Amino acid sequence: MIQNDPISEACSVAGRLSRNLIGGEWIDAESGDTIDVRNPANGEIIGAVPSSSANDVDRAVKAASESFENRDWRGLSADRRSQILWRVAELLEENADHLAHLETLDNGMPLAKARGLAVHSAAKFRYAAGWCTKIQGSAHDLELPHGSFQTYSLKEPIGVAALITPWNVPLALAATKVSSALAAGCSVILKPAEEAPMTALRLGELLVEAGIPAGVVNVVSGYGNVAGAALSSHRLVDKISFTGSTAVGKQIVTAASDNLKRVSLELGGKSPVVVCEDADVAAAAPLIANGVFSNSGQMCVAGSRIFVHRSRHDELVEVMAGIANSLKVGDGFDPSSQLGPIVSERQLNRVMELVSVGVEDGSEIAVGGTRVGTTGYFYSPTILTAPRPDSRIISEEIFGPVGNVIPFEDEEAVVEAANDTVYGLAAAIYSQNGQRAHRLARQIKAGTVWLNTQLALDPSVPFGGFRQSGWGRESGREGIEEYLETKAVIAAL
Ligand code: NAP
Ligand code: MG
After folding, report:
1. Distance between CA atoms of residues 75 and 132, nearest Å
2. How far apart are CA 286 and CA 289, in angstroms?
3. Pocket around ligand 1: residues whose beta carbon is below 6 Å from it?
4. Is beta strand 34-39 parallel, antiparallel or unpaired with respect to 44-50?
5. Angle, in degrees to the nearest 10, between helices 411-418 and 434-443
6. 148-204 per-position pLDDT tens digit
């Protein structure tokens, strides 16, 4: 690792972030058990966070519940809550560089990307701050056979929200959930992924500094099957917002059924990219490469099934192979690195296994397909061609920098192939014919469809999946609604 002051500072902050935030206090797990946290660029241990048990979770849920019942947060004026969320955004921005170093140390992503995501996280809090003063119901009069009535609706916070996040974009995903839940007036428990929990704990510190009352935000680290499962089944939790794998999403639905808590799920994807015969391939290829290689492919929206009109197939493969070859894979702290490591050895092994399966099933490697170095968990950007349509490489989410290029003949066939998946998170269409692009956008089953671009996201744009990519939406008005209940009041006149 290249040594300089901000990196040493991030190391010492990672060492300090070893406790849960519960009821406004920083405390160890009751058992004293911890989970080692590693830097995926070299496998070294950078700190240890609490391995929380069901008892620790229970304590955090009770703190959240008490703050909700006491109206410590939701009872403040909307203007005051807005001010505090705006202050969180300012603190995120002031600390963006420092947060970026912590994220790169823990998750491995290139520092410039981590910095961009810290600034984006601030934008999420500013967007949410604006909603505090704009959450309102509606009113109308009723004439019924037995009298006249006025009816109005109240938009009330759901209550205690448990927010479970993955390791791929740790700070930004935590910021999305926490900011929306707080704008709605909920009290929350945030459970980050054991693989990359540091920036969520640091966010907890900044939320306290900004003036969020004690107990309103609790941060509890721990294993998913222990701490996450305890949150999913806890009777005082009214809402679960989860981002992660489809398999765990299904477990959460089952666990949540006991008290029928509200559930929203941002799950996996196997997003199609459609390159039409009239596409500007030279302009599209860098966007497509970014859409599958960025963050080393560890993105739920990765465009990993790249359908291209047969007449443009070889051209696209050649340009993308050139881009893949030019990408520098290395330690996220090295400013020349464009792709960092895969988050863990386990995840690297999964990527390597799926690529082997693809090759055994007949795919050809146009570029990449190899581990990079032996220290840390680096993998080369990879393009496979001629995949068998029923291969696991085509049906399963890889979560690594691996794209499959698949030729198609006509529009009808590509729509059918693009929709031939259990997922429906995102899609991209490249065509210089606007009419065709908009027509295809209507036929693809996905929560987000990009036309002649990829990865464009904003706090104002609803995001989520069709089918097994999830339930509900994050961001936009819809993202705030996920944390609200509607109450109808009917008054006799
Ligand atoms: P995961 O197991 O679904 O983990 C996501 C979060 O859920 C983590 O905080 C995890 O905790 C927690 N969790 C695990 N089991 C749980 C349970 N039974 N109840 C409640 N919470 C639970 O995902 P992963 O293991 O990190 O990655 C596996 C695959 O998921 C990836 O290969 C990728 O395909 C997919 N993934 C998708 C996204 C996305 O944005 N849609 C993000 C990440 C991963 P711990 O990690 O601390 O155990
Ligand atoms: Mg880590």
Report:
1. 12
2. 5
3. 164-168, 191, 193-195, 223-225, 228-229, 232, 243-245, 248, 251-252, 266-268, 300, 350, 397, 399
4. antiparallel
5. 40
6. 999 999 999 999 999 999 999 999 999 999 999 999 999 999 999 999 999 999 999
